[in-house]
Every structure is written in C-alpha cells, then in structure tokens.
Amino acid sequence: MAEQHFKELPKMHTTYANVVKSLIPLGDNKATDLPNSVYSVDKLAIDEPNLKEYRRICGFVDDGRVPPTYFAVLSQTLQMNMMAKPDFPFAMLGLVHTQNSVTQHRIIFDTETVSMSVTLGNLQPHDKGQTFDFITTVKIGDELVWEGTSTYLSRQKKSADERAKDKDKPKEDITPKIEVGENGWSELINIPEDIGRRYAFVSGDFNLIHLHPLSARAFGFPKAIAHGMWSKAASIAQFYDLPKSYRVDVSFKTPIFLPSKIEFVACPSGDGCEFGLYVPDSDKPHLIGKITYL
Predict the structure, then answer these.
(1) Which domains does the chain have, with CATH numbers?
(2) Which residues, other chains included, contact 153 with Cβ-Cβ below 8 Å and sequence gap of 6+?
(3) H or E element: which one contains 79?
(4) Which residue, among 196, 238, 288, 189, has the nearest Cα to 67 in the 3D structure?
(5) Would you say 120 and 134 are in contact if contact means Cβ atoms under 8 Å apart?
(6) Which residues of the chain fall short of a pLDDT of 50?
(7) Virtual CA dihedral for 181, 187, 196, 139, nearest 10 degrees?
(8) What DSSP state is assigned to residue 15?
(9) Dihedral in degrees, nearest 10, Cα atoms 60, 62, 63, 67
(10) Which of 40, 110, 142, 242 could be 117's S-S partner, Cβ–Cβ 3.0 to 4.6 Å?
(11) What local confidence, expressed as pLDDT, does residue 40 receive?
(12) Taking Cα atoms as reference points, which of 48, 54, 50, 49 lies closest to residue 67?
C-alpha cells in the first residue's frame, strides 16, 4: 500500500494542472481495480475563519463543536489529489456523487488537532456504469472520532446486450415521501442563487455546474445546482438536539437548481430520524436521509 503524507491539507491551486488533465475522458473501459494508496495529514488544526464561514453558509450554530459534515469537506482536497493521479481509472468529468455517510463517534471540538486519512475502496458494478467509495477516517491520537464514505458513480456506455437486458428489468421502486407524523416537522427553505459560489470558497469545490448558469449550461444543466454536501449539511443543521454519537446517511436524488425554494421534512423513526428535501407540494425528492443514533 502506497502512503503519501502531507504536512497540511494541499491547496487546491497546487493540483489544478493535474486536475485539468484528469477531466479528459478515458474511454468506456471498465476499471478492474482501484489504486491501493492512502493520503493523509498527520496533524490537522481547524482553520477557525473557514469553519466560521462554513457554519454561517450551512446554518450550523457556533457552539465550539465541529459540524458532522465538515471533515467531509476538508477531505475533498485529498480526494482531488488522488483523482488527479495517472493511476486513477476514471475521469473526474461526469463523476456523480450518489451517496454519503458520516459517523461521529464523539463530540469533536474545534480546538482539537486531528489526523485525517483517505483511501479508495468498494469498486462495484452499477446499472449505469461503476461505483466506488472514498473512505475518510479522522483520529485524535489513536482514537477514531469520525469516519465518512462518499460514493461516486462513473457513468459508462452500455453494450447492445446490456441495453437489451435493461428492457426486461422491472422499474425501480419510488421511495414514498416521508410523512411528518405526530412528532415530525416540515418547513420551506429559500436557497439563494449565489449559494454555490459561496460554498465553493469554503469547501474548495469549484465544479462549474455549481457556480453560474452559463457555466452550468455547458454541462447540460439549465441553471447552476447546489452542492450535494451543502444540501446534506443544511439538512443536518435543522436538528438542534443530536446525541454525542450518530451516523448520517443520505442519497442524492435530483439536482437543486439555483435559486430555489425547497421543502425540508423530518420525522422520528425508531433509532433515529428520517429526513428529506423535496420539491414543494410534491413527492419529488432532492435528497433522502436518515440519522441513526449510536
């Protein structure tokens, strides 16, 4: 296993040249394996100004705790460096973030220094191509305090035989909309047009589909769309009484075009709480998630 250690999180501009190269399509060949490498930062102190702005943009209160999605943001620069290497089998252009899971094992304070590592795994076939995971772990000393998994889909063209088989497959079941119930709640959230640009500056994710309608149209979107991890963070920020240890799983369903008004729905469910973001007055989901108390 190849390990690469960084003294600090790499700056996005230092890898832009390689990132541009990695946008070039690699053809329709399926990957047979993933790089067996680990990228890590051994001593990572929280950037207070960046965290303060992240809290403000996503809606988290400033309570001295690191929000549960923040380490997923910090790990993206390590992920980008891994994707920019020649041995990464997919082109960045066209990768779709389909699912994300974060687990907070205990409260993490913004004054604590952590270590962070990222690796690849779980290469799987998919109806539309292949999926894989970025797996991030955060430790304080030898204690595992946070871990996260980001699942991406690499879309690939199908052969004639695969297309023929698809015609015989049953259609995917549509997940029913979460019902508010007795102890649940819902509210409408207005998302401004510039949220993609503001989030890009705190996260380092300057994907052009998030920044402006003109750049989004170049990739087939009628308007700019919100970052998936912003929508997850904004959802979690609606909860003010989470326990010390919990996991949050989400599936990203349909884009949130900017500006937009969306409906947030949440309902307690056994060992946690289910939640979702929907097109107002409809069953069409942007995001479906669950918080599981540990």
Answers:
(1) 1-168 (3.10.129.10), 170-294 (3.10.129.10)
(2) 95, 96, 98, 126, 128, 129, 130, 131
(3) helix 76-83
(4) 238
(5) yes
(6) 160
(7) -50
(8) G
(9) 40
(10) 40
(11) 96
(12) 54
Q: What is the pLDDT of residue 171?
A: 57
- Single-letter residue type at 91: A
Q: What is the pLDDT of residue 75?
A: 95
Rounded-to-10 torsion of CA 201, 141, 108, 113: -40
Q: What pLDDT, in 10s, does the model give residues 207-222? A: 888 999 999 898 888 9
- 202 CB contacts (<8 Å, ≥6 apart)? 50, 53, 54, 57, 73
- Which strands make up the sheet holding 246-252, listed edge to edge? 2-6, 37-45, 113-126, 129-140, 143-155, 95-104, 246-252, 285-293, 272-278, 260-269, 185-191
What angle separates helix 228-236 from helix 48-58, to the nearest 10 degrees?
A: 80
Quote the pLDDT of residue 135.
Answer: 98
* Model pLDDT for residues 160-184, shown as the tens digit of each residue: 455 555 555 665 557 889 988 888 9
CA distances from 241 to 60, 61, 70, 238 (A): 12, 12, 18, 10
Q: Whole-model pTM?
A: 0.90
